[in-house]
Amino acid sequence: MTLKVRWNRGVEVESSESILILDPTVYDPSYEYALITHAHSDHSKGLYYPFSIKCSTEETVRLAEVYRSTMGEGWRRVRCGDRFRLGEFEVRVHNAGHVLGSVYYEVVSGNGETLVYTGDLNTVKTLTMEAAKPTSCDVLVIDATFGSPAFIFPSREELSVEVSKWSIDSLREGKVPVFQTDSIGNAQEIISMLNTMTNIPVVTHPRISGVNKVYESSGHRLEYIDLRSADASELLSRRACTLILPKRGRLPSGVKANLALASGWALYLKDGRKPIPLSDHADFNGLLEFIEGCKPKLVLTFHGGRRGRVLAEYVKKRLGVEARPIEFCESVFPETKGKDRLRACEKEVLRTVRIRGFLYKFRWIYQNLKAKGFSKSEVERALESLVDTGKLEVHGREDVFKVK
Ligand SMILES: [Zn+2]
Ligand SMILES: [Zn+2]
Description:
alpha/beta, Metallo-beta-lactamase, Chain A, Rossmann fold, 7-stranded mixed beta sheet, 10 helices, 23 strands, 29% helix
């Protein structure tokens, strides 16, 4: 019995008896169980699908419902620190530090193999969230959004000062400081920063006000005025407040404003807006530290595009741990040994060399199998055994194989 992990528009984890999907982005009825990490729309779609059991925190459901009502059936509430069973798996819930209600999941198989899936992750304590702490595991599937050394963020204290100072300077210039940012997470951080460091009133877009209410009902203090109110119009016309808008939110007409973008991506912003590199994701150093703390045997990066590959390279070089983007893995658990592992390797070889009568060079086969985590000697042994059982034949030279 081994745990298998695979990217299937979500992270699929399978053991001999059970299968589940983490943060699914489409509905696939072959999964009975879905685990959802947080409310951002690229992670929370599972809340709208009819899985027999879908787990998330209560905050995640309430935040998702600011946008669209979720499907109640099959929903199961989880909290940080919980442990529960789903089929053969034991699932443990940990704080992900990202946005209100965000968690990461540890999945333990029947024979004790452990996989951690982080969802989106922040390793820095913020005004609204505690920092995520690493958990020992065998396989770590990690958010690589900012998994490149090009992304090192300033400290929260520096960002707080920058947010406040830029707001005060803008008001002195006779302009309303306007922050465009993520409605869930960053928006509440900026409100908290301004509430703590200044007495400038904060006006928020209705969608952000909706999210604020969920934060408030979870015990966070936020002082803000909804954009639709008469007070907000008066403050904006006097240019005596800040305004927080969603990332693509439009400026109300007639407002003289200075625009800022608050996002990790702002580090490389060059469109005239004030860049505020405030992020609810860990930066490069934060990711490496977290990975080291988990002591994994295999790291699979996701969600980072090119940075997924960059982060995997750094993990291999700096930490000496096997790593690759999850897209490249029909992954076999690294613990798998002996016969199972050999059989998995054979299966993978046959999947790679599919065309009958075609000639395949060893080097080509090996390159493909290496991307899936197999070593050279494993590939050699698998090929040997496939030749022995008559599925492949050696063609002329020793390193060319023909499919029978
Ligand atoms: Zn997120
Ligand atoms: Zn995400």
